[in-house]
Design a protein that fits this description.
With about 230 residues, the protein is of the alpha/beta class. About 30% of the residues lie in helices and about 20% in strands. An 8-stranded parallel barrel has the order 1-2-3-4-5-6-7-8, surrounded by 4 helices. Helix 7 links the parallel strand 7 and strand 8.
Length: about 230
Amino acid sequence: MIEVIASVLPFKTFEELKNKVATLRGVVSTIQIDFCDGVFVPSQTWPFISGGFDDYEFQKIMNEEQGLPFWDEFDFELDLMVADAVENFDIYMKLGAKRMIFHLEAMESLEDFRNFLEGIDLYVRDNIQFGIAFKPSMPLENVFPLISLVDFVQCMGNDKIGISGVALDERVYDRIKLLREKYPDLPIEVDIGITEQTAPLLVQAGATKLITGSLLFNSHDKIGLVEKFREL
């Protein structure tokens, strides 16, 4: 069965994030929160738009006074569209997500990033799954050496990331097919460009997880849409 993950973007405040997550209760079990720093991507989300790590609500999570919205009802994955994902890994880890996604284009050195992945503590790996994301323009030859060090990959559906409602770049289909042929058991997520027309084609190509944002939030039948995608 295909896993359907709801993507929350954009949001400017913790309260807005909370309100968006609340509308997904009973619809999905996993939510992807997109963190955008305004550096790696032009857009900004909480907490970067309101004080960064010094933001009051962010600090409450760091101090274990609260968790991510409805943390006891959802599994969260963090899509770290930020320039400091490795540098501040320990901070992001404290947010309590089940999965963390690193963008290869944000890395100054893929060799240094590989060393980072190799050095992650085994206890941490027992509790968090790690994924790598990459744009359609990223050569897959840069991705292959890292596959053995992660739990899944996320194919971005367009080079324009951090923006809601962007169309799918059709190059993604062939990239997924190649990944599936080379790594038969690799979980493959697709983020950006998921529609009722593209979803079946992405699954046929080899995708196992579909990230849906604006399509889901704009749907009059969220549960029906999720069920339809799960059965692809």
